[in-house]
Amino acid sequence: MANSSTSSRGLAGTTLRINLSTGEIKRYPTDEKLMREWFGGRGAIAKILYDEVPRDADPLGPENLFIMSAGVMSGCFIPAGAKIGFGSISPLTNGHGDSNMGGHLGPTLKFAGYDMVIMSGISPKPVYLFIDDDTVELRDASQYWGMGSLACEPAMKKDLGEDFEIATIGPAGENGIRFSCITHDFGRQAGRTGQGAVMGSKKLKAIAIRGTCGINVHNLDKLTEQVTAIIKRTQTHPNMAPWQKYGTAFFIEWSNDNAVIPTRNFQTTYFEDIKGISGDALVERCLITHKACFGCWMNCGKYTKAVLPGKETVYLEGPEYETGALCGSNLGMTDINQVAYLNWLMDNVGMDTMSGGGVVAFAMECFQRGLITTDDLEGHTLNWGSVEDTEHFVDMVVHRRGIGEYFAGGTKRAAEKIGRGSEKFAMQVKGQEMSGYDGRYAPGMLLSYMTCDIGAHHNRSWTITVDMAEGRDKVEGRAKVVVYLQHIRPLFDCWCICRLFWGELDIEPEEIVESLNLITGWNIDAAEAFKTSEKIWNLVRCHYLERNKANGRTFDYPPARSWEDKIPTGPSAGKGLTKEQIETMLDEYYACRGWDNDGNPSREVLHDLKLDFAADNIEKIGLLGKPLPNGIPAVRGERYKPKAF
Ligand code: SF4
């Protein structure tokens, strides 16, 4: 069997390289040095993309790579070791992109004997990647091409067997919509940065894996002891019961109560009809049963149905918080069945519900302001709260009809085409649409969006509770917490374990690193883990500068609504940040990272992180940070333990 022996524990042992243009499939021993120095998952993906993709490569062209990596902890004998990471140059941001998903695909890839699959080129015809332990083939996918993601997965299982784990793209990915996602397990998505569009550009419709081997770990006895203690302790953690009952939809009302929920394209932060789309509404009106990923009993997944008059009843997983906010209040939807229906619609066409919700909301505000009209919409309207209007508009986008072509590239590209002041309310940073929190009166969250390495995404540093706890008028000091969170949270994406379980149940970093050591036989401490994460962050920043060729600060601003429009309604009416406050946060952030005030990493910090090669590269294009008068800070980021909410 493929994974019968490997010296580094936690790994399956083999990496696949597949040239989709020629159909050539090669096997290599997994590069253990790469896994150790870059922690697998997101880190290994970042290093390979940096080393191998030409700086001028088109994200949707043959030179871009499409990588999946299951890291060193996925599939091991631990709770929620369920993740798999995908990465490529993002067609949405034109920088490093990565996204991950739960379910069962990551563990199964390793059970089949593989840690990583690196794909290049473009297939001459639609194919799917078939992995059945030692058998690895590219198979004809013409019978599946054009199918929705949620329809394709059961069709493939019917053809191949229920014990195959399947990941697919939908028509959005096939048509190169830049915010397309990858779907697996009927509702787990790698949603952000347009990984589905990269799959589509490579004519790769799906991935089907069956694996029957196990993963060796370094010290099973001690790992069992440690995991048993974690299991016992987390059972009674106060966050466990709400996650189990509602999933992250638990936060919908919390966000509204705290006036941070994006409403009608972030025009305001308080939604008067919140009860209709809340976690309670989900459980009472849509829930069929709870659902969990591999090795997890937190079962935050909600298997649901959406029942709307005049529409066929549809079945889905969700909506979780982000979809509830971005396809709910942000579109003016007042009924959870509407939100669930749009969740299903976007999942099936293969569109990230977060960017998808952001794009539709932006278009709705353009319609509200008369910047697009029924003439642009094939005679349809695009009104807040209308499922019919949304469904028609999504169809225009997915099939790039008429003005749908503008929106196929996301809000930033659409605003560039529409103009007339629309850039101000295109709610994105670096081309990626904002997550489901309005940062106008949540400064840490806004800074998180601004500085996130993959564009405006909450997951790298979820700072909203910090804002609530530390004061929403205060911007000073927020940067060091954002930097700390940007180091700890991406570690879960490196090791391919679930952040919700390992990050939100008070499992300390030292304990997580102990599990890592017991699995791998490494001997690292939390300080080394943070420093490696910082190294990955800086490499990704250099990569972004090298591809986009301007000072980093240029790309770190949110749209002007973030400082020009005070919040108009709700408990935070009249509140908002000034441009000066935003500049202060950026100044502090760069200083904290050891970057110069243009947002470019200094040689000192890159040397400290053993990234001299990246310093040389950004120096060649004139983007190496200026020397720092007082040298780099000894500690970048300040450890922060969020208070309970
Ligand atoms: Fe999956 Fe939720 Fe468990 Fe995480 S907490 S592994 S997302 S079920």
Task: Give the SSE layout.
Blueprint: E1 14-19, E2 24-29, H1 32-38, H2 41-52, E3 66-69, E4 84-89, E5 96-101, H3 105-111, E6 114-120, E7 127-132, E8 135-140, H4 149-160, E9 165-168, H5 171-174, E10 182-184, E11 188-190, H6 195-201, E12 204-210, H7 220-235, H8 240-246, H9 251-257, H10 279-285, E13 287-291, E14 301-306, E15 314-317, H11 321-326, H12 336-349, H13 353-368, H14 387-398, H15 404-407, H16 411-418, E16 428-429, E17 432-433, H17 443-451, H18 464-470, H19 478-495, H20 499-504, H21 509-520, H22 526-548, H23 561-564, H24 579-593, H25 603-608, H26 612-620
Parallel strand pairs: 1-6, 7-12
Antiparallel strand pairs: 1-2, 3-4, 3-6, 4-5, 7-8, 9-10, 9-12, 10-11, 13-14, 14-15, 16-17
Helix pairs in contact: 1-2, 2-19, 2-22, 12-14, 17-19, 19-22, 19-24, 22-26
This protein binds iron/sulfur cluster (SF4).
Iron/sulfur cluster is lined by residues 80, 82, 102, 292-293, 296, 298-301, 498, 500-501.
Description:
The chain has 645 residues and is α+β, with helices and mostly antiparallel strands. Residues 1-6 have low confidence and may be disordered. A hairpin with a 6-residue loop joins strand 4 and strand 5. The chain has a six-stranded mixed β-sheet. A six-stranded mixed β-sheet has the order 8-7-12-9-10-11, sandwiched between helices. The protein folds into three domains: 14-210, Aldehyde ferredoxin oxidoreductase, N-terminal domain (Aldehyde Ferredoxin Oxidoreductase,  A, domain 1); 240-419, Orthogonal Bundle (Aldehyde Ferredoxin Oxidoreductase Protein, subunit A, domain 2), CATH 1.10.569.10; 443-505 and 525-620, Aldehyde Ferredoxin Oxidoreductase Protein, subunit A, domain 3, CATH 1.10.599. The protein contains 26 helices and 17 strands. The termini are far apart. The longest helix is centred in the last third of the chain and has 23 residues, at 526-548. 40% of the residues lie in helices and 13% in strands. Helix 19 (478-495) crosses helix 22, helix 19 packs across helix 24 and helix 22 (526-548) packs parallel to helix 26. The structure holds iron/sulfur cluster. Iron/sulfur cluster (SF4) binds at residues 80, 82, 102, 292-293, 296, 298-301, 498, 500-501.
